[in-house]
Design brief:
The chain is an alpha+beta fold and about 350 residues long. It folds into three domains: about 90 residues, no CATH class; about 160 residues, Jelly Rolls (Sandwich); about 70 residues, Phage tail protein beta-alpha-beta fold (3-Layer(bab) Sandwich). The chain has nine helices and 19 strands. Strands 1, 2, 3, 4, 5, 6, 7, 8, 9, 10, 11, 12, 13 and 14 form a 14-stranded mixed sheet that branches. Helix 1 packs across helix 3, helix 1 crosses helix 5 and helix 2 packs across helix 3. This is DUF4880 domain-containing protein. It comes from Exilibacterium tricleocarpae. One of its GO terms (molecular function) is sigma factor antagonist activity. InterPro entries: FecR, FecR_N, Ferrdict_sens_TM.
């Protein structure tokens, strides 16, 4: 690639911005639609880029209504009829990408729970703030509307406009939301292609890849699957009973069941509670909080159940419990991992 030429990722994002604006304009021809479908089918990265553009629009609202962006879309209306359409889209959509990226402020929480603010470069645009936690850390912060959010280990949350609607996007990890009551402004959390809507309530959202789990602690929430072009199937679940938990895998049916809220939110107090959980699930949960991972020789994890309470990040106590129960024995140990062998 020559110096100054756009990267594949930049071209892909620019193309996604182009097609997103074309779709929103509502005047795509049949030929446009075929080209769009062909572009989506070319690579999974294209589909991912378009999904992210949908999420950014949902989070930032009016950003893409910028007159420069609309003018750029008009100039580019015929770009996809020419061989060099990707290069043209990369240049034309640059204003879209700039509007979406330069308006973010980043907050990196320290281990003490403090936060440092970097002000956005363009305060005239709708602002967004990104909150992150590092491995083994969880941190609580207060939103401008008075709601509070606690992020679990290695999690990321983007907070968008808080005007007519309160919009947030859970990028990865797990978050607990205690929502300030304001019937005039619904509180909306985007997690993958799922949308969680609440007014005044407390709930938890977790993401593992594209799989989303929502746990209701207080009040009520509505969970919907995004109905963008890439997701024609529609799901909606209203949760009104505390303790309800919705599991929404990416490629499977949604499941709603009652769970123990204290167990599901025990991480807020620095503990992990296992009540006859499968050992494989418990190991995965313990590993989320530590750079020193538990592994089994030959990846052979016994089909056993675990009962106990452990502090987050305390890998040693968990391993000792497995040894005392006669489940496994330590084979080797270093700063990166503890290898266990089934007894």
């Amino acid at each position: 690639m020559s110096a100054g030429s756009p990267s594949d990722r930049e071209v892909r994002r620019a193309a996604a911005a182009h097609w997103f604006n074309e779709h929103r304009a509502g005047d795509m021809t049949e030929a446009d639609k075929r080209l769009f479908a062909q572009w989506l089918c070319q690579a999974p990265e294209n589909r991912a880029a378009y999904r992210q553009m949908e999420r950014d629009w949902a989070l930032f609202g009016a950003v893409a209504q910028d007159p420069q962006i609309l003018a750029a879309r008009e100039q580019d209306r015929c770009a996809f009829d020419r061989p060099s359409h990707l290069q043209r889209v990369a240049l034309i959509a640059a204003s879209v990408l700039l509007a979406l990226t330069t308006s973010w402020a980043v907050i990196d929480s320290g281990l003490t729970g403090g936060v440092d603010f970097d002000r956005p470069a363009f305060t005239s645009r709708p602002e967004a703030t990104t909150y992150r936690t590092s491995l083994g850390q969880h941190s609580t912060f207060t939103l401008p509307d008075g709601s509070s959010v606690t992020l679990d280990t290695d999690s990321e949350l983007r907070v968008g406009t808080m005007r007519e609607l309160r919009k947030l996007q859970l990028v990865r990890g797990r978050a607990f939301f205690n929502v300030a009551k304001d019937p005039s402004r619904p509180f909306i959390v985007y997690a993958g292609d799922k949308t969680v809507r609440a007014l005044g309530t407390a709930f938890q959202v977790s993401m593992e890849g594209e799989d989303v789990t929502v746990t209701l602690v207080e009040g009520s929430v509505r969970v919907e699957e995004d109905t963008g072009l890439l997701r024609p199937n529609y799901h909606r679940v209203d949760m009104q009973e505390p303790g309800g938990q919705l599991s929404a895998p990416e490629d499977s049916n949604w499941i709603v069941e009652q769970v123990d809220v204290q167990v599901q939110t025990s991480w807020l107090n620095g503990h992990l509670v296992f009540l006859s959980d499968p050992l494989a699930d418990a190991v995965a949960e313990i590993n989320r909080y530590s750079s020193q991972k538990i592994v089994f020789t030959g990846n052979r994890i016994p089909e056993r159940e675990i009962l106990g309470v452990f502090r987050t990040g305390d890998v040693g106590s968990f391993v000792r419990a497995l040894e005392l129960d006669g489940i496994a024995k330590v084979v080797s140990r270093n700063d990166v991992q503890i290898e266990l062998r089934v007894q």
